[in-house]
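Protocol step 4 of 6: record predicted structures for both targets in the notebook before any analysis. Target 1:
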Amino acid sequence: VFTALISSLGSFALGRMWRGKGGLISTAALLLYTVPVYFLVIPFYLLMHKYGLIDTLWAVIAANVTFAVPYALLILQWYGRLIPIELDDAARIDGATPIQVYTRIYLPLMMPALAVVGIFAFLTAWNEYLYQFILLSSPGNKTVAISLATFFDNEDTPWNYPVAASLIYALPPIALFFAIRRYIAAGLTLGSFKR
């Protein structure tokens, strides 16, 4: 949710309000992906320790949002270019504020891209293991990925437990995909109509 919210606000600001300069800023945000995530573990750990967020789920949320937003911003900005800018101009002539343009025009038309960004952010966070392992230590805060890894630590564990846990672990992404597949299908057919 945080990834979709931050990247949609950023793409609206960069694509609609700063029409000429937005592409350079969003491309610069992708420079984060040139640095491997393993190099950022220690600085991120020290930053979370400084703010007292070690062993809280907020530290993991911050890590996942930090690494998902640049790509989501680029996707939403490119998708936003398909929406005619004349809709924004017409809404402003009718007296709409930038917040109303964002909530009543931009967000409803961006639903297919937001669905894709939501799936991307969810799968990135769901499959992430390193930052969860480093930042969380108490048993009450451990995520499903860390708990599932403990099944494979013991050689005496019967195979039916890890296999059943892995099957259950795979169900939420499948359920999410089927819940929002109509938005993805709507986004695939958007370019087939002429204005």
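Target 2:
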Amino acid sequence: MRTRVAVLALLGALLLAGVLSGPAQAHWADLAVAEVVVGDRIFRITLTFHTGLVVESEDDRSGQLSPQEILAHRAALTAALHDRVRLTNNGRVGSLTIAPAEGTTPPDLSAGTHSTIALTYAWPDAVRGLNVHYGLFLPGVSTASCLATIVEAGRVRSFVFTPEQSEFSFVVGRAAGWRQAASFVVLGIKHILTGYDHILFLLTLLMLGGGLRQLLKIVTAFTVAHSVTLSLAVLNVITLPARLVESGIALSITYVAAENLWRNDRSLQRRWLVTFGFGLIHGLGFASILKEFHLVGANLALSLVGFNLGVEIGQVAIVTTAFLGLLALRGVPWEAGIRRWISAGAMAAGLIWFVQRVSF
């Protein structure tokens, strides 16, 4: 028995770990943050973005633009950003001025990969209706996103830009809550659909078998658990080191996969309890992206609800597709073997991710 499991784990590792281990480490490779302050005729944006998008202006190859480099390459930066970050007031494009972002604290993004600059857009007439186009994304990065926090006369609103959702229009002085919530729904869907470790955990949960009743208990337990810790983490009630959280997610995959290989009736009965416990850890992982945005007040509540709804939509899509696929396999002679192969590969991938996340 042990020999068979060892062989299955080794072969599963070749099938899954090599394919999945890289992307799991590359979550949110292109995360950007824009803080926008609205004036009468002037909009000021403090933008933190991936330096690789303007690498020709980075002289010392430090991974970050210094104030001196921003001033020395101001013309080149203005040309590079003019069309990719474009603000239009009633059809008129604002005149752009770029300068170092002085007296501001950049978001907690990866050190040595992002730069922060100040962009000022001006118009001769008062701004009433504004269209924002944001297209400053690394090409080919599926997780690309930029959160714009817009401060106007004491009102704070947020919007998530992605390559598929690069336009945002609003009327000065008028709320646009539904669009904010919708953008965070999209962000939540993308977050789980590109979170390969979360997907593998969900798939591994289903490999033990069981009927629709067991599936509903498992999904409900995971939903409740990750919703609780997602909310508490974003509210800064719970704070754990990212390395600890990511390592815990990897171990959750390993444990559930190993339980599948040594399964018994008791394992299936208590699977929802195991799912609830590990769901608490996954919720902390989901929260990592929102914590980078430092949302506050009603803006936080609306964004949190939208993001969590998006995660649930993505989760339901994954679980439903996998369940229907496994349902179609019922009665096939090699069904049990497929479930064990997938579990063995997931166990190996989880172990590799755990070593990677503890070591780096």
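Step 5 preliminary note on target 2. The first strand starts at residue 31 and ends at 38. The two ends are 34 Å apart (CA to CA).
Proceed to step 6 after PI sign-off.
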